[in-house]
Amino acid sequence: MEAQWMSELKPSSGASGTSNRLLQAKGLRKAQEIAREEKATELFLRAAQEEQNGAVYEAIKFYRMAMQLVPDIEFKINYSRPPDADRGGGNYMEDSDADGEIEDLLAYFEQQLSVEGSFPKICTPEVEMTQVHISALPREILMYIFRWVVSSDLDMRALEQLSLVCRGFYICARDPEIWRLACLRVWGRKCTKLVPFTSWREMFLQRPRVRFDGVYISKTSYIRQGEESLDGFYRAWHHVEYYRYLRFFPDGHVIMLTTPEEPLSVVPRLRTRNTRMDSVLLGHFRLSQETGNQTKVFAVVCKKKDEKATDFQRNRFCRRNPAPEAEHSFHVGLALSSGGHQSFSKLVWIHHSCHITYKLTGETVITTFDLDRMYTPFFFARVKSYTAFSEQPL
């Protein structure tokens, strides 16, 4: 009986040991799965952060590592919780100043979008719609629309107004590529480096430049003595008043006009270079920034050629009308500064000369004008109609 009892105890003891080992193995696998999921979550969130920062190659690497650990990690992440502090994202509300304003609004909005879902939309409709909402468009299409808003006229003011629509539009309006293209359009090869600026937007807003969304106007007035009357009893005095207009274009062209007509009638006709005003001068300009941090504008303008007169002179029956023997061009130098509350709104004369080139001899005669009180500064006036229409994107 004792031997039988001992034989019955042995198998039960073996079964108990096996059960304990199975429980231990199951607990170990569970712990490994939890550790693997936590590591995959960390890698996936880091990949999302790299993708937002524009480092696509690094993001793909971390996405691949996360999915190798947990293939469906994308659907296991709880996006409703705030990001961990050790991820380096931080809480932007805690970093705000005494007034409660968010210091880095762009990073804060990007952080909010990243915690809303695996595929966050740029914006969401405020009310239910039966038609397709603009949020359904890919980001690439939205950025192309934003480039049309800026247009070739560099209407960055409209871009800033568009950023007030929602946080998604704010993020798109701060896209570095748009501001980089705008800087290249203004300064060309002279803006290959950001230093000392921290972003392309900061460069465009703070670096001295001429403005394209309006016209620079200079008003000159003086009193001139007239002729004596026939009886010599009195002499008339005349109050003379005239205006100079400067209109700059992003492609380097400039229009200059001197006329007694007031801005109300002249400004609308300076919207494009194809103006029909006979006294207008057309030319090119360039910006020059010297060591003293003084930005200057140099322009060369001349009277536009009359195409009809040129065709008329080519007629073999009109040989008695010879071509003009000399060409006149005017060289203008201006110092750029800020006046009042507007940036880069004042241009002060530093040079004005007339170059006459004789076609027969090729000789050029230069006449430099004295910059007296008749050369009053130009002041900028914004014109909304200049940027009301877009002819081509940025």
Automatic annotation (TrEMBL):
Region (Disordered): 1-21
Pathways per UniProt: Protein modification; protein ubiquitination
UniProt keyword Heme present: no
Gene Ontology BP term (one): SCF-dependent proteasomal ubiquitin-dependent protein catabolic process
GO cellular component, as recorded: cytoplasm; SCF ubiquitin ligase complex
Pfam families (alphabetical): F-box-like, FBO_C
Transmembrane parts of this sequence: none
Annotated compartments: Cytoplasm
Main location per the UniProt record: cytoplasm
InterPro entries to which the protein is assigned, alphabetical: F-box-like_dom_sf (IPR036047), F-box_dom (IPR001810), Hrt3/FBXO9_C (IPR045464)
Protein's UniProt keywords contain Cytoplasm: yes
Domain F-box: 131-182
Keyword terms: Cytoplasm, TPR repeat, Ubl conjugation pathway
Protein name: F-box only protein 9
Naturally occurring in which organism (per UniProt): Astatotilapia calliptera (Eastern happy)
